[in-house]
Design goal:
Length: 180
C-alpha cells in the first residue's frame, strides 16, 4: 500500500521491505519508513527496543525517517516522548485534523481529512519536535523532527474499503483479537 501511495511522488525510488530484522547499519538505505503494527510502541519487547535504538542512530547520522501510526508513536518514544492508550478509545475512519502554522507549510492551511485506525497515541511530546497537525482527540497527529523525520498518526496509505475490512475481519466483534 505504501509503495502504491508513494510511487507517483517518488518515481525513481527503489522500495525494500525490512521486517523485524533490522539492517546491519542505518547507512544500508537512504531512508526508512516505519509503518503500522499490531504492537504498541511502549511494549517491553526486544525488537521494539532495538528499533528505537536504530531510529535514534539513523537520526543522529542524518538518515531520513518517516513514521505512520505505530511508526509515528515509535519515533516519538525513541526520541523521548511518551505513548499510551487513548482514554477515549479507538479512532477509526475519516478524521479531521487542523494544521498548525508550521503544519500549514507542509500540508497547506486547510484541515487534513485522513483515515485513522488507532487506539494508542502520543501523550507527551519528545523534545525538539514541531507539531504539524492534530485535533481534540489526538493533539499530536503529525510531527516534524527538524528536517530529519516526519511522522503521522493517520494512515495516508489506507482506503475506506481497507478500514471496513479491518473492522469486519474479527467475528468476535473486536477490532484486534483479544482486545474486547
Amino acid at each position: 500500500m505504501f509503495e502504491i501511495w508513494l510511487r507517483p511522488s517518488l518515481p525513481e525510488a527503489e522500495f525494500s521491505r525490512v521486517s523485524v530484522e533490522l539492517p546491519g547499519s542505518v547507512a544500508d538505505h537512504e531512508g526508512y519508513l516505519i509503518t503500522g503494527s499490531l504492537f504498541s510502541a511502549y511494549q517491553d519487547l526486544p525488537w521494539i527496543h532495538d528499533l528505537k535504538v536504530f531510529v535514534r542512530r539513523a537520526l543522529k547520522e542524518a538518515i531520513p525517517v518517516g513514521g505512520v501510526c505505530f511508526g509515528h508513536q515509535l519515533i516519538a518514544e525513541a526520541m523521548g516522548g511518551r505513548v499510551a492508550l487513548c482514554n477515549q478509545g479507538w479512532a477509526i475512519g475519516k478524521t479531521e485534523y487542523q494544521t498548525s502554522p508550521d503544519g500549514a507549510e507542509w500540508f497547506g492551511p486547510e484541515p487534513i481529512y485522513a483515515l485513522s485506525f488507532h487506539r494508542d497515541q502520543i501523550v507527551a511530546l519528545p523534545p525538539g519536535t514541531t507539531p504539524l497537525a492534530g485535533n481534540a482527540l489526538c493533539p499530536w497527529a503529525a510531527l516534524a523532527y527538524a528536517d530529519q523525520a516526519l511522522s503521522v498518526q493517520f494512515h495516508p496509505e489506507f482506503s475506506p474499503e481497507y478500514i471496513a475490512a479491518l473492522i469486519k475481519r474479527n467475528p468476535d466483534g473486536t477490532l484486534v483479537p483479544g482486545t474486547g
